[in-house]
Amino acid sequence: MECENALPAHSTASYPIKSCEKNSQAPTPARKSQLTMIEIRETQAGCQFAVRVTPKAKKRALGGTHDGALKIAVTAPPEDGKANAAVIQAIAKWLCIAKSNVDITAGQTSRIKTIHVTGIDQATLRSALP
């Protein structure tokens, strides 16, 4: 089974996280151009990118950009690492990989975090962007 997201083609708002489903609609050029502004750096073991987290949201969501970072909303509160764990879980579900392959390398206590994903290349990550 091929793993792709089925998110709406609008990049300025967040949408519910849907993983491992076929994408039923083709991405619009405006959506793709805005999401390509997300800086993805390749490392020896995988890729790194920035996310902007909204903890304690009503719904879990992933999508849109904010200052070059992918926006993620999680329902967990920002205490005792609960929001960080929810971010790792959301990214792992979105990319259809194990949670052990996702790590927060910077910004443990900040809304802006640097995420490192092991075992994935830049092209694969770009194609999975919502």
Q: How many strands appear in the DSSP assignment?
A: 7
Name the beta content range: 25-35%
- The chain-level structural class is alpha+beta
Q: Which sequence of SSEs, written as H and E, runs from N to C?
A: EHEEEEHEEH
Count helical runs: 3
Round the mean pLDDT to the nearest integer and report it: 79
> Mind describing the biggest β-sheet?
7 strands, mixed
Overall form? globular
Q: For the CA atoms, what is the radius of gyration?
A: 13 Å
Q: Stretches where pLDDT falls below 50 for ≥5 residues?
A: 1-15, 21-28
Q: Give the N-terminus to C-terminus distance in angstroms.
A: 18 Å
Secondary structure: helix percent:
10-25%
Detailed description of the structure:
The longest helix has 14 residues, at about 80-95. The chain has about 130 residues and is an alpha+beta fold. The protein has helices at about 30-35, 80-95, 120-130; strands at about 15, 40, 45-55, 60-65, 70-75, 100-105, 110-120. About 20% of the residues lie in helices and about 30% in strands. The protein has three helices and seven strands; from the N terminus they run E-H-E-E-E-E-H-E-E-H. It is globular and about 30 Å long.
Q: Concise description?
A:
With 130 residues, the chain is of the alpha+beta class.
